[in-house]
Design goal:
The structure is a homodimer of 331-residue chains.
Chain A lengths: L2 H8 L10 E12 L4 E3 L4 E2 L3 E18 L5 E4 L2 E3 L4 H14 L5 E8 L9 H16 L6 H11 L11 E5 L10 E4 L7 E5 L11 H11 L6 H18 L2 H20 L10 H15 L5 E3 L7 E5 L3 H7 L4 E3 L6
Parallel strand pairs in A: 5-7
Antiparallel strand pairs in A: 1-4, 2-3, 4-7, 4-8, 5-6, 8-9, 10-12, 10-13, 11-12
Helix pairs in contact in A: 3-4, 6-7
């Protein structure tokens, strides 16, 4: 099944641009990672995942209907040529909605994510774009279907439609209509995510390609779904019982297991820098001294620290440039 | 079955110390790693492994019968107390042979392995000790049985009884009499192993404990036997066809997959130092420039480089302190 066929099931055939719209969607940090696709064109995952959204860090996207024959793309205040990789992904996503109709937009995206922190902006970007399309085209789709649509742009975007803890249910259907995120009710005041800056260079292998290489070449990947399923269950338990050690352990082992599948690929896929290892050693040394501090990592060299508010000062002493987000501080 | 019961099947009940004996056994570098035990007391492995022996680098062990009530242990020229960990392992191994009989020895072990290179000395040490016991006690056991006995001291010691390429057949029997090494006939003149010094500190977790933690806590370990079986077959093909790229790739992916299972354990087991990552990046950069250079690693931070003689100068330019061994240079 193609993305267009899925969209045809969800949207009316005729659309009209009603108004301009500006929407925000948060970045999210997965505590149980999305790693591997069972179906590539629809971004259907091999395993369910669970994330926490980063409150005010994310993407603002403004859509303005324009009388033109193509879209106009602006990113962080600057016009981008339509042949740029980012523009191509954005217009391809709008094409899914527009399906040959003459509906063009100025798309202005502004990220509040610190670019050096290694946070994926495609998740929040496609989530905000989905919300803005829903609004500008007057679609009034329910959150579950918005999540299905955002997934077509970027898998983890389906989680960025919600605040707090979010689970992406993997689903079983071929059309993916049951593969979408849901917000969990539980909150965790005092939970902190610390963003560490390791490296700002462009990744040599993007996570989409990395996922594919791992799936095709790493024998160890065959056990990844087992790890992810066990971790998902532990995370639900940790959240229900507000058991921080269980949350931290599970998230750290899950992230390291994901990296392990990459390290076991051919050619080897190691996103770590020497400095990443030094920072892991610092985290482990602090934990050895009794500080409940854990980390997670995505497909890059940066660590994302997990701790609770009482540890804030102790953590800042060892990571003075840390940017700290409290996902449940507001709202 | 206990080690003593195995020895009872192989050795005559009454033994006599006939002479002193000095024997040498080489260190070995596994290209397909021994990682995980299906039976702990006999060191029976989960998977078959394949190594190359390091010619003159290894252990010299001299046994002298003494008229005493306990053994005397000397290591690299110095007397060691009997309660030292090394002495305990040595005397426990001799106990297996002596089985209550009043046969005591002065055991003098001298390693020619550069201590900073991260080469396990237990493999060559127990292999040399087995050879010396065979000789001093006049046992005249065939190599296959010597390999079974050496395995009881340290798993990978069963491979250090032979030169060149060596396969440790995993076997199926409960008594382990079919789990022993055999020498391969193939030789590979020009093959070089480069020993890199990363860190001389004692490991926080020895490989015996690391193996056990991985087996018990890493879901990804479940796929390790698949990786190892595929790699063993590829290594046989690489050796038969003298296909160096296949040999190097397979050895590197195998080592990284083993480390991946440790990284996926809980608590995480990362033997790498920041410098290990920097050196891997150097190897990959050189390979990107067309230099056929690969690495393997054991349960430690050190890299062991694999290349052929024509690359010697290019490799030395980037690793000036490299100690190079040519396993097939002599003999």
């Amino acid at each position: 099944m193609t993305p267009t066929e899925v969209v045809d099931r969800l949207l009316p055939a005729r659309l009209q641009a009603r108004a301009s719209s500006e929407q925000f969607a948060p970045s999210n940090i997965a505590l149980c990672k999305y790693w591997g696709k069972r179906e590539r064109s629809l971004n259907l995952p091999v395993n369910a995942s669970l994330s926490v959204s980063l409150d005010h860090l994310g993407s603002h996207t403004r859509l303005t209907p324009i009388d033109a024959k193509q879209d106009e793309i602006r990113f962080n205040g600057r016009p981008l040529p339509l042949h740029a990789a980012f523009s191509q992904r954005v217009t391809a996503f709008i094409d899914l909605f527009r399906r040959q109709q003459p509906l063009y937009f100025r798309v202005e995206t502004r990220n509040t994510i610190p670019t050096a922190a290694g946070l994926a902006s495609s998740a929040s970007g496609f989530a905000a774009l989905t919300l803005a399309l829903n609004d500008a085209l007057g679609l009034e789709l329910e959150p579950r279907l918005l999540s299905v649509l955002a997934r077509l742009g970027s898998g983890s975007a389906c989680r960025s439609l919600f605040d707090g803890f979010v689970e992406w249910r993997m689903g079983r259907r071929a059309d993916g209509l049951d593969s979408h995120a849901v917000a969990l009710e539980a909150r965790w005041p005092g939970l902190c995510v610390g963003l560490v800056k390791v490296d700002t260079a462009q990744k040599a292998v993007d996570s989409r390609a990395g996922m594919q290489r791992t799936l095709e070449t790493a024998h160890l990947y065959q056990s990844w779904p087992l790890q992810a399923a066990a971790d998902l269950e532990k995370l639900h338990r940790a959240i229900a019982q507000q058991d921080f050690a269980l949350l931290g352990q599970t998230a750290e082992q899950n992230a390291l297991s994901m990296h392990a599948t990459m390290i076991a690929s051919w050619p080897p896929l190691l996103y770590w820098q020497p400095q990443s290892v030094a920072m892991m050693q610092t985290v482990w040394a602090l934990r050895g001294q009794g500080v409940p501090l854990y980390f997670t990592m995505d497909a890059g060299p940066n660590l994302k620290l997990l701790f609770e508010r009482p540890q804030r000062d102790a953590v800042l002493r060892h990571f003075p440039e840390l940017e700290i987000v409290e996902p449940f501080a507001t709202g």
